[in-house]
Amino acid sequence: MPQVSLFIELMYEHYKKGHLISSTFSEQIWSEIGVELYERNKTQYIVAQLKGKANRFRMLWRKFYDLVYKRTGFGWDRTTCTVTASEDRWAEWIVANPRESGLKKKGLPHFDLCTEMFSTSVATGSNTRSSAMPPIANNDDDKVNVNYPTMDSGNPLSFGTEKIPRATRGVLRKGGQSDRCGGVVFYH
């Protein structure tokens, strides 16, 4: 835990300096964090390893955050840096999430610092999706009736069934076909 704690503290220092851009640091900042880790802990990491560690901490933090803030019956113990819950609540949750049973014993130092750093770059809400998750089923059978304003009537507020010009990429060929390269062509 001391090495994890140090790594999170170093990331947090750079976060507070405004170095976190689009949920990550630049290569230069990662290199600086690597040098600082080596100077303080004599452990050397390359930038890719540091990025990987940070991503794993972010994913672990997200799991803890969801338990603590989105589920009833879970809390956070600042002393042990672990999620707390009654044995019954853990048992119920583990039955529903067997692949995550290890979270009961895992810890994450500086949960509060991680929450400050990571919550600004992590999506929240019911539509949150990981890139590792399968796509949501799409209901393409929904029919929507839309009436567009008629362009030829002189009254832009009148409605009709005429087609409105649309932009496409490409050169318009005989018969209204586009070759899909070149400039933008308008047709109806």
Order of helices and strands: HHHEEHHEEEE
Radius of gyration: 26 Å
Mean of pLDDT: 76
Distance between the termini: 65 Å
What would the principal axes of the Cα set say about the shape?
elongated
- Roughly what fraction of the amino acids lie in strands? 5-15%
Which residues form runs of ≥5 with pLDDT under 50? 127-134, 146-153, 156-169, 178-188
Number of helices, where a helix is a run of at least 4 consecutive DSSP H or I residues: 5
Number of domains: 2
Counting DSSP E segments of at least 2 residues, the number of strands comes to 6
Main structural class: alpha+beta
The portion of residues assigned to helices is 25-40%
Strands across the major sheet, in which order?
Answer: 1-2
Largest sheet: 2 strands, antiparallel
InterPro entries: LIMYB, Myb/SANT-like_dom
Pfam families: Myb_DNA-bind_3 (PF12776)
Domain Myb/SANT-like: 5-92
What topology emerges from the helices and strands here?
Layout (H helix, E strand, L loop, with lengths): L1 H15 L10 H15 L5 H24 L4 E3 L4 E3 L2 H10 L14 H8 L29 E2 L9 E2 L5 E4 L14 E4 L1
Antiparallel strand pairs: 1-2, 3-4, 5-6
Helix pairs in contact: 1-2, 3-5
